[in-house]
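Recall that a protein's primary structure is simply its ordered list of amino acids. Everything else, from secondary elements to tertiary packing, is in principle encoded there. The following example makes that idea concrete.
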Amino acid sequence: MATTVVKSALQAIRERGLRLFLRDLKEDGFTQTKIHNIGATVGGVDKFGNKYYEKLGDTQSGRHRWVEYAKKD
């Protein structure tokens, strides 16, 4: 799993450049604990603030989509 995260991060840096990559990480709050979302695209956000992600490519079947639930605050 760690190698997939590193591969995804490197691919995202190649595609967007380091500056945009780091800016996106900071804006989305990925610099804290959301490392698993690197390289994924946001499929949508519902009215409750839940974020729906999708990551195609070298992921396992059934694990290419996931939800990050909004905080209860």
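The beta strands are 41-45, 51-54, 65-68. Residues 23 and 29 are 10 Å apart (CA to CA).
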